[in-house]
Amino acid sequence: MITLYDPFERMQFGPGRCFLTGQSVGPADSVPVFDDWLQATYSLADRPLYLLDQSQTTYGALRLPLAPELHERLRALQAAAAAGPAALRALPPAQLWQWLGKIFYGIFAAELVQQQQPLIKPQYPLAENKHLLHRIRSFFQLLQGLRVPTDYADFVPGSVFVLEADAHYEAPAFELDDDLNTLVISLKLGRSVLVATLIDIGFIGQAMRQVYADAQRPLHPAQVAEFKARAYYAAYLLAAVPDIYPRRPGPHDSPGTELVLDALVDDVTATIFNPWENLAYGHTLAGLWPRWGLTEEIILRNPFAPLSLLYDALGQPQTPANAAEQLAVLAYG
Predict the structure, then answer these.
(1) CB atoms within 10 A of CB 250
(2) CA quadruple 72, 246, 259, 80: dihedral positive or negative?
(3) Which of 16, 116, 219, 273 makes an SS bond possible with 223, Cβ 3.0 to 4.6 Å?
(4) How confident is the model at residue 117 (pLDDT cuts 50, 70, 90)?
(5) pTM of the model
(6) How far apart are CA 280 and CA 261, in angstroms?
């Protein structure tokens, strides 16, 4: 039976130990958190990246120690990313989740290494937050799918959304957003925008299936930001955190060749999401709309129906052009 590595028992996140297996590795045995092709395409190597304590590193400096025999297990998405949103949507959701999960974990590990510095006061001290630690440990067990062929039995590890940004509107070619507390990450790669909630075993994807269906078209950048806000707020509301268990091999299974993971949610609470609150959602939305000057006051002029650019006043999906017109009206008050 495959034994899963748990780096949280001794908080082992620095170099010298494979992040997936825990075995000792040499200084040269590491992989970039942001793939070489990603750094080359978007000139990321020397771009600054700020951690939660406001310390600065670069995209190119972030690396994960990895046993040499596992390097081929880390699937790259270079061809699909170059082809655009349709090619990324055609990939298995678990593959997209694993790739985004590796990036999230790489940033997270850098945060934890910083937390071990004696003069650092972290924003989210992991050792003091049992709820966050439970989320992170469950996420890391799911991430073991990077180590061996893995069957996520009857569930998906997280919800991954692929959006298309309308190229007619100005926006950065590359954008990264992540939140340690709710385990969400999004990447903009040219016209493609990947948004992932990493530990919801598909609950958020189910809850947002109609919004996602309505968003299968080119979107104004502010509409993309609204979709992200909905996903981020859903992750904040998520009350059900799964427990992940490796399934013991049956009598006819070959041990050590495949990992089968089961996800169990405590059905005593029977609560998947905490109640929606427009004020809290408006705050999340305002955090992603500063580029367009949309404050919480503007967003919550009608406190019972927060401002939307994805949908018009009748609740119908609206075009990027109509969203741009709406933004122009709001800008001039």
Answers:
(1) 8
(2) negative
(3) 219
(4) low
(5) 0.91
(6) 34
